[in-house]
Please model this.
Amino acid sequence: MPERIMIEGGVPLRGEVAASGAKNAALPLMAASLLVPGEVILENVPTLRDVSTMKRLLEHLGVRCQGSDTLSLDSSRAGGWEAPYELVKTMRASVLVLGPLVARFGRARVSQPGGCAIGARPINRHIAGLEAMGATVRLEHGYVVAQAPRLTGAEIVFEAPTVTGTENLMMAAVLAEGETVLVNAAREPEVRDLAEALNAMGARISGAGTDEIRIRGVASLEPVTYRVMPDRIEVGTYIAAAGITGGDVKITGCEPGHLRAVIDRMEKAGIETVVGPDSIRAVGGSGIRAVDIITDPYPGFPTDMQAQFMALMTLSDGLATVTETIFEQRFMHVPELCRMGANIKLSERRAAIRGVRSLSGAPVMATDLRASASLVLAGLGAREGVTEISRVYHLDRGYERIDEKLARLGARIWRAGG
Ligand code: EPZ
Model:
């Protein structure tokens, strides 16, 4: 019987939980090790399936990877330049090796990441940026084949922000000839974290975290030790968990400044938050108010918190709308939430959630990482029955020991089968 997560909800969560390192910061930082011959050491690396997948890919490219929480990556003897389909198909973020490979070795052959549950997710903007920097890029047999004796700086204007596109091209530009300017760049904190690490290696990047990033190419980079930033989406998920169970949870080791849009919406939904320099205490229990959200690139409400917020709204006191502007089909969690008694109507990019008095536990299926998080939240909020979540590998891609952390907060949650 494949592994499932079982939840018997209705318990107000109480206590403290520490934020883990951010998946979406760790992955580009790991890829960046390809840029520098020598030992790059990353600290606070979360234990996740996606991190293991990236390790396997880097080892395939010749990078020596050692450790876990503290991860040593040495690409001194790396020489591989192909990211094969069987690895890339399990994790789209594999595309993050494209820029570093072309910058370091002058060539790359990376399987085109297929679509996934939340959308087609093309990488045309990544490719257009590399071509602007002088690379020749061909698409053949499902692979992106890029070559450039030496990349040259260019002005690259994104038609719309792309997080990994910004990261890929920033990494390509650090060793290019001359200056590169990324216009309409992604402003996510993970982009800034990557820029800070690259600058610590000797890169010359300014403007990361704004929509215009300047990168002046340098001849080479030096190894560093760098600490991965806390995971803002994990933190937001635990705030929602406190809200949906009427609990009182303090999340430590986080950066509240990365969650202003999320805290704003959670407060309006009736969750009281007490914000410290590196902690957020979330107190539910006074009922959940219906609040509308529209996802938007950072610093707007993150699409990666959309499914979790929707789970919270299923128990609200009215009608809430959730508008998803980033991905074309990030509503795979809706039918599963409805199986638990939620009242949700879908139109094109909008979900209308009419709060119900209670949810009931049911067997449900995870379809993608954040959809599975929303099912965990719904299970925690269901006051009757047991929720059985299958395909938990989606959850383990992006949440470090989520069942252990929730159990320590009092949740009745356990793994079965496997
Ligand atoms: C990153 O994905 C994150 N992944 C995603 O988190 C997150 O949902 C997303 O950014 C948006 O914030 C990592 O950082 C590893 P995009 P990414 O390029 O970079 C379109 C999670 O749950 N687009 O910013 O792939 C694209 O289709 C994951 O942790 C193009 O059209 O997202 C989407 O509609 C899920 N062409 C929009 O832009 C391109 O070349 C934003 O995508 C690139 C993107």
Q: What stands out?
A: Residues 4-20+230-416 form a domain with the UDP-n-acetylglucosamine1-carboxyvinyl-transferase; Chain fold (CATH 3.65.10.10). The mean pLDDT is 96. The chain has two domains: 4-20+230-416, 23-227.
